[in-house]
Fold each of these.
Amino acid sequence: MTALALTDTQLDLLAAAGGAAPSLHNSQPWRFCPTADRHGLQVRIDSSRAVPITDPDGRALHLSVGAAVFNLRVAAAQLGRTATVRLLPDPADPQLAAELDLSAPAEDRRPFGPDLYPAIAHRHSSRRPFSNRDIPEQILGDLVDAARAEGVDLAVLEEYGVRRVLELTTEAELRTAADLARQAETRSWLRPEGPTADGMPPAVLGPQDHDARVPVRSFTGHPPTRPAPPTERFEPLPQLATLATRTDHPADWLRTGQAMERVWLLATVHGVRASVLHQAVEWPDTRWRLREPEDGPAHVQLVLRLGYGPPGTPSPRRPVGEILDDTHPAEPHLPTG
Ligand SMILES: Cc1cc2nc3c(=O)[nH]c(=O)nc-3n(C[C@H](O)[C@H](O)[C@H](O)COP(=O)(O)O)c2cc1C
């Protein structure tokens, strides 16, 4: 056990890594608080940043916070510490999503295979068309293994499965487009041009598919309520993958968020881009129909589109000072002798 408490600089590095995680509509629904002895970090859900009409159960909220937890684990390794994670450690306090004990030195500086730390800053949602280049089987296998290591099944879909998921996503996107309350909620996360700390500024929005085959989310509505990027031709048969769990509780959603981020960072290391197609997960019936019936009782939590293309545009983040609650300042060093 290392005797050293986390310094302010280390806490800032951890919070910046956690805060760089992906989140629904870039809502960033997290807060990080050092433990009283400064040997660990609590990850709290910030419910004021929930997206309640689109995400009434908090599934996407927990997924987003789970992704932040994974980034913290990567950053802990960067600091030479092992992160021992307890998910939802206090049943009386469901906003406490996780507690990380960071007191032990890292036995392995690369606990996730390749060094994932630089990928935290390079990972972005890539909402533009991808090329037709196939992702090598070896890389896809590594992504499946990465999700499995987090206790989550990543299914790389074959053509039939891709077409089925595209159909369900189109159905859900059209239903969302006709739902005025959801449309208003999504629009409330759109941000104007200029400095902002959260939400979706115009630069990060992608085009719609000219051939309407890849149903990327329209953040500006159907028809668009604001100037939208011109349509472009997407890849005819995207490479889709689903993340699924055996049970469907908040701890499963936090695990899925960690698996999503682990897969996404590893993909980034390999130059593979990703974006999320979440619309079908947001309606109970389309979410249920996302599962492959022959796979048994699986709960699909997320749909990822993978491929080769532009890296995506960095989206804004809240400053560390807003997401790090430092109520336990570092002990002053007492003079010895
Ligand atoms: C649970 C979840 C659902 C998401 N759903 C979508 C989606 O349907 N369409 C989309 O383009 N991006 C989606 N995203 C990506 C977020 O919009 C993105 O992570 C956020 O805007 C921050 O941008 P970044 O990923 O580039 O850092 C989703 C992300 C999460 C975690």
Amino acid sequence: MAKDTFFVEKKEWSKTKDKLLGHYLKLYFNKILATRANVKYIDCFAGKGRFDDGEIGSPLMALEIAKEALKISKVHNSIDFCFIEKMYSNDLKDNTQQYKCTIYPGAYETSLHQILESCKYQNVFLYIDPFGIKSLHFDIFSSLKSYSCRSMEMLLNLNSFGFIREGCRVLNAKPLSEEISALEERENDSGSTKNDIPNMNRVANGSYWQKIITDYNSGAIDAFQAEDRFVEEYCNQLRNVFSYVINIPIKVKIQNMPKYRMVFATNHKHGLVEMASNMCKKSSELINGGQMTLFDYSKGDGVKEVIMNFISSADQSYDDILVSFYLEKGPLYSESDINAAIKELEAMNSIVVSRNPPITETGRRATWISYKKDMKVRRGYEKCH
Ligand SMILES: C[S@@+](CC[C@H](N)C(=O)[O-])C[C@H]1O[C@@H](n2cnc3c(N)ncnc32)[C@H](O)[C@@H]1O
């Protein structure tokens, strides 16, 4: 989709993106506010704030969610909103008049650094929702490590097929099929960053993508495998910046093709578990009019069989087990489904669960299952050996 028509009408995939962000923000704001810490919410590609058809955009949605979270928060802390917008900052100003927020007109490349400098010991949430990939220079992400924030999380809309299409173009490889190209929101910002091999290297943080395009061009892999490999390698680059990175393919249901990937990065185990579990739980709500689907993982074995593969004979904390599960399997099962499976496995003596404290306040044996508490799990049969 050309950028000048983007805000005419809010499309299904934009609604899906917002729902994914919105569901997580509710949990995130409530959790952080409860710790008495402040939050800096930075939307680096904020848009107009409202679509021409009246639907709200990501900035207004985040502001509304924060309003609710602050209403129920028992402590006096704040959520500081920073919206960066290159082309539509005046519309954004008009559309956010009734809220307290700061608008930074111009490119995020110039203002993000300044904003982050003022985020010492704050919790920062970055939302990155560009039209395409050209301005996603990885050095900006690499620099995120250097700020002394209390915590940082990032949700990125990665137009992975857009990257592959551009890769094919700049390397003179065979173009993507029309079917795949039709999925993309095209980047028509001809006046901005020039796209060439050095710029693509800068976006990808290396030249690994060139081998992927060469393999696609020779027929060794198809376009889907190329996209998948690129996303995996791109996420590996992000793992040098954030401890935990997962991606969620948002698919167009009819063609079953990933239209884009939402990449979530965090330094906190619990942030990862919450995001992955939330995505799984809400997946049916995230499907809009049957057009979009969140992901299409084949669940195969039951949850008990799958989770058993992540449990070893040595005691391991339960949050680490969930983190390994989500990093390897993606948002396949919700945390509550996994908790239920753990309970059953414990009852079957397939696993041993150690809880601290082992006794409840009323003197009974504790039976809770929670990754937020001190809980360890190991395979049960070890006990008899
Ligand atoms: C996909 S739209 C964002 C939509 C928004 N998240 C929403 O839900 O309403 C991308 C926005 O980024 C803006 N933009 C493009 N390049 C930018 C840059 N380098 N820095 C900041 N904003 C930019 C565009 O003007 C456009 O409004």
